[in-house]
Sequence to fold (831 residues):
Amino acid sequence: MAVTVSPERDVVATPVQRATREALYAGAIALGLFVLFIGLKTGQNISNELVLTTRWGLLAAVVIATAVGRFLYVAYGQPFMASQKITDVATGLLPDSVATRFFRLPYFIAALVIAALLLVLASSLDGLLGPGLAGYARFVRALAIIYALASVLFHFRAFIHAHFSALGIAALALYPIIVVVSLALYGGSMAAGFQGSLKWVDNFGIQILIYVMLAWGLNIVVGLAGLLDLGYVAFYAVGAYAYALLGTQYGLSFWILLPAAGAMAAFWGVLLGFPVLRLRGDYLAIVTLAFGEIIRLVLINWREVTNGSAGISGIPKVTFFGLMTFNVSDPNYIAKVLNIATSSAYYKIFLYYLILGLCLLTAFVTIRLRRMPVGRAWEALREDEIACRSLGINTTTTKLTAFATGAMFGGFAGSFFAARQGFVSPESFVFLESAIILAIVVLGGMGSLVGIAVAALVMIGGTEVLRELDFLKQVFGPDFTPELYRMLLFGMAMVIVMLWKPRGFVGSREPTAFLKERRAVSSSFTKEGHG
Amino acid sequence: MQYFVQQLINGLTLGSIYGLIAIGYTMVYGIIGMINFAHGDIFMVGAFTALIVFLILGALFYSVPVVIALLVMMIVAMLLTSLYNWTIEKVAYRPLRGSFRLAPLITAIGMSIALSNFVQVTQGPRNKPIPPMVSKVYDINGISVSLKQIIIVVVTALLLALFWYLVNKTSLGRAQRACEQDRKMAALLGVDVDRTISITFVMGAALAAVAGTLFLMYYGVIAFSDGFTPGVKAFTAAVLGGIGSLPGAVLGGLMIGFIESMWSAYFSIDYKDVAAFSILAIVLIFLPSGILGRPEVEKV
Fold:
């Protein structure tokens, strides 16, 4: 994309000339990059030999799209963004002019009308438009609803900004209820509401909250103490296997094993941390990465205990604090005790609140710890290790506590994960998971709980949404599976977000400890990760 | 004894491949202080390019001499893989130069995910086996040495010699060493830093592409996810040898290769990677800057 242009030529070239030139470069580079990989496809023939098939049409489309995209960006995108910056400086206001133009009352009303119309017609859409167009119509409906919601949020942005944490927690607490009630109203019965809520509560709610919890746990290590940990998933694995093994072998309850798993992960954190925390920066990163891989390889190869790659299944479900269970066959099954209709959604909703509680616990502990001497020592360590040492802070103990605390929350999240899935295998604890968690922490703006939660919502929610885009099959043919592109887009999104906001969504930090007055530290003055 | 020498030869072969990849890591780290996580996937792209070129050659010509086929595969893989790494550096790392340290690391991880999934989406998720290209095996006093192994070691040695010449005897190499020592000062003295860094990425990718081609020839199979493990091991090798040091990268690669083959020969093959990583941890604890690395000087 970025092609160097010597500045002398830029003076004489108009934006369009420059854009044309850059578009040609970009097209040529794209052709070089993609000619073998998109132009040709390796596939097996009947006798299982590799053969090549050609896809020149697709190649041409991709190359042209790259060139046109580059042209538009250089010719219109860059001047537009530059002008945005200028007005910005002149008025001293945030560049919200695009947003105010995008969110207008007439558009909002139009979106509401479209959404309402399509909702009313929902059941007869297939009949009216045929299955092909109905897919588009549903997509348009979803877009209209999202736009309307975004408009409301935008309108109340000042209020939301002022009460972000309280509103966020309230929204999270009400989320399953809202989902169930709105789906029940839509489907006409409570049972339909519970049934439909499974996907929303489980795939979106629980999934995102697990990552929020993991990222908040890692945030203690990376964001607060500034130690780069690339093997965080190891502690997640320790927690998950602790619950899975002790739960299936000894039948212990989740409520006993949750703290046990946390303690065990913390123990491993100390065990690993003790020798390696003397290492600096990147060496620490590579040793933690190696440790993560060792744990995974041991889980795969120690078949007598961990059952190898096949994993452990039949992990007991969480009980409602021992009072009620979620197994239909049990005498104290929740539906029997409360005398309501049987549904698998209760368990998911319960799990949702459980993980929400664990997340809030993590956040609470983080916020409180930051005000304690140890938390202040972490932040000081992140900012300047040498100054820290000369002020008499024991850096090894400080690092060790950060590592152990972070690992403990990883362990909690792990045992929750095992309980939710009912099955664990080494597949779930690959390096990619560590990378995703670290990416969420950095994209959110290290040290900022709100930013990290937003990053988890965007990155994990965004990739989950891709599973829902079935209508794309009508555009690209029935073989097209949007899920395949999930991780490709995730990786590209990581790059794009980082380029767009190198310091994450919430870039500036307010110091927790201060003298007389609180002064925000501009993000450009701080440096992280030198531990 | 024969068994031991046999393992030594196997280790040398593996170690050569790791060493070639490790140079890419260590050069990039030396010059911009960044762990290029996408390098393992660059290696995989190189191997995949070689695979596609192999198939093209097979489709176009009735029979191609192995030497020519290997050469063509290597050269095309070097060119295209360099183009990949060059583009990635321009798009994902250069804008973040001077930003805080974790930013390019995150884009590198993002690029690594994107690259392997790009290959998965475009070429399919299956393993891609090719018929054996070289199958001759020599028997010397009961030790079997395959021609493949000889090719790998010879190509690696030749490339390293060329590479050593480039870094130590040319103006380009001087510019690279200058940037490594002090980027700001090098820029003041008229070294085009951006260009030097680009060339470093290109060189690293070219070596990784050769490693990929040799890997494909040796194992005869490649899949989109095959970049990660050799990548991590090569990085381990770079750290073990002392990151930033070129002879260290080669030495580290050879050591990892020996450890792996000895461990699988005398202990258990399942735990060979565990052994490699554990030794890395142990070495770093007692020798924090690697075997040939210079200790970091702390300045206040």
Summary: Residues 29 and 35 of chain B are 6 Å apart (CA to CA). The longest strand of chain B covers residues 137-140.
